[in-house]
């Protein structure tokens, strides 16, 4: 490491603590921008440090003293919101570098940099970097700048995407709010009418159908309510011990007519003893969204939906399978993202995003496997508290 002595102003060369001949550092993208002489100087100037998980590299507002090259691991950049809450704005991985803006313009750090898991960083002091930059050819500087500009472009386009996403969510929230308002009076009329029918025809079959009508009317309202919560990023859970086979029974009843009409056979394979803490309505919503997708995918040709469940010591495992055409290749990587839809005239692309948000709110995970013309299986795992 170069050390500028305050007394003599002479530069002495000190070996950095570790990795003096670190090959990774020499082959780092940032170093490769420079000519061999300056590249060697930069490597000699750098000190390499291994940092533990959550180690703060610099705070927002701090003066810029180093440029950082990531040799290994991951770094997160966060901006503080209302004091001690943080919002992650970006990540950087091995072969990336950061902190160059402050180095070039001398202004305070615009975000906090913190280690994710662990990281090995090479630090180049600002003063030495500026000196070396002054000695390099203009083409080196131009190459470096065009790389930095490309990075700014990418960040800007990510930011623009996020803005569009937020706008769509706000719009969705406003729209659903209006729908909820307008739905309330026809739904209470449906409730009233089904209570009257029940009174006029008090036989068990009519009573059961009237209860289904009421439950469906309530479902419509809670669906809209959930959509509103989702668009606002809220979503409260009302957890209580639920028996999975009973919830699947309700799901079957609510969908009896829908499945019949769509020529869908529902197969349920669930032991009676599975009880876990969850929000029943939200679990019903998960099943419903997945079922709607399977029915849509069957495209009026009919098909089989099979829901099977089991437990481990820590979790409830639910498999939701269909024998449909499979999820289109082009959206598999982004399936759980909001507004990703394919091949549907009226799809909003929110069904699976809502499913994922509900499962994650329960501390669980969801993944899927899908094969063309063979079908799709969603694997849901929810921890038993
Ligand atoms: N079981 C499935 N089989 C085949 N394709 C599926 C299946 N589930 C989802 N897809 C595909 O994934 C897309 C995204 O599904 P998602 O439920 O997120 O949105 P959507 O169904 O398009 O709209 P929304 O659910 O908001 O009405 C669907 O448009 C469909 O193309
Ligand atoms: Mg859907």
Structure, described:
The protein has 385 residues and is an alpha+beta fold. The chain has two domains: 2-136, Jelly Rolls (Sandwich); 236-383, Heat Shock Protein 90 (2-Layer Sandwich). It has helices at residues 23-26, 29-32, 36-45, 100-105, 126-135, 138-200, 204-231, 244-254, 256-261, 280-298, 351-361; strands spanning 2-4, 11-13, 47-51, 56-58, 66-81, 85-93, 97-98, 112-125, 240-243, 264-269, 275-278, 303-311, 315-322, 365-371, 375-383. The strands form four sheets. Strands 3, 4, 5, 6, 7 and 8 form a six-stranded antiparallel beta sheet that branches. Strands 10-12-13-15-14 form a five-stranded mixed beta sheet. A hairpin with a 3-residue loop joins strand 5 (66-81) and strand 6. The radius of gyration is 29 Å and the shape is elongated. It starts with a strand and ends with a strand. 24% of the residues are buried. The model is unreliable at 1-23 (pLDDT under 50). Bound molecules: adenosine-5'-triphosphate and magnesium ion.
What descriptive keywords fit this protein?
385 residues; alpha+beta; Jelly Rolls; Heat Shock Protein 90; 11 helices; disordered N terminus; binds adenosine-5'-triphosphate; binds magnesium ion
